[in-house]
């Protein structure tokens, strides 16, 4: 909201409020400003129809993942059709969700933008798939992409600090839009009496508490914690595991709970 104001957008200061969910946080925040928004995406976001949010114009670029030469031929046709409508947008501000979306936008846009902002939810290690997952891009390539932007939007000040160590990024305009627990609220909690907080939450004075905060789904790894809990209990009998977060059934969360 502050970034839009700095760029000269006239906004109602009473509008920004309400919902957020995972990777859709910043999109929801932009919709909450009430300013007309155009969204280029592979698939429309079903969670953006809450009351109080403006309705964006959707431009879907339904590329196929994989499928070899057949998929590439299909995607070329999809991008060609998308360019016909997207080339007329001429935005004042472009906000891109991550380096994968950056590459999608670069394949279909043919206009310059006065101001570009990119949202990076993960740390450099996460982008490089240090903890497993898909084959990662090379960090020099990611950094070259990031340097083409004016504003870097992160979901955590601690995550942002990990990016600032790379040459050419520290001078970017960094913005923080928290998507989980607010760090400033956590700082206030840390100032309170620890014993009183444990008692309030129902933990005994000698309980060894493990807390995992995040939506409950397979990729978060809570199932790995649960699987090794018996072994941990053999070493630390007073251990207690607490999972904090909503159960994402569509991402295997119910299987984790079972």
Question: In words, what does this structure look like?
Answer:
The protein has 258 residues and is an alpha/beta fold. The protein has helices at 2-6, 25-32, 68-86, 98-108, 124-127, 139-146, 157-164, 183-190, 194-200, 222-227, 229-235, 253-257, and strands at residues 38-41, 57-60, 93-97, 115-120, 151-154, 173-176, 208-213, 239-244. The strands form three sheets. The chain has a four-stranded parallel β-sheet with strand order 3-4-5-6. Helix 4 links the parallel strand 3 (93-97) and strand 4 (115-120).
Residues in helices, as a percent range: 25-40%
Q: Count the beta strands.
A: 8
In angstroms, what is the radius of gyration? 21 Å
Mean pLDDT: 80
Largest sheet: 4 strands, parallel
What is the molecular shape?
globular
Question: Total number of helical segments?
Answer: 12
Instruction: Name the beta content range.
Output: 15-25%
H/E element order: HHEEHEHEHHEHEHHEHHEH
Provide the low-confidence segments as ranges.
Answer: 16-22
Structural class call reads alpha/beta
Main sheet: strand order: 3-4-5-6
Instruction: State the separation between the terminal residues, measured CA to CA.
Output: 41 Å
Produce a short descriptive summary.
The chain has helices at 2-6, 25-32, 68-86, 98-108, 124-127, 139-146, 157-164, 183-190, 194-200, 222-227, 229-235, 253-257, and strands spanning 38-41, 57-60, 93-97, 115-120, 151-154, 173-176, 208-213, 239-244. By secondary structure, it is α/β, with parallel strands linked by helices.
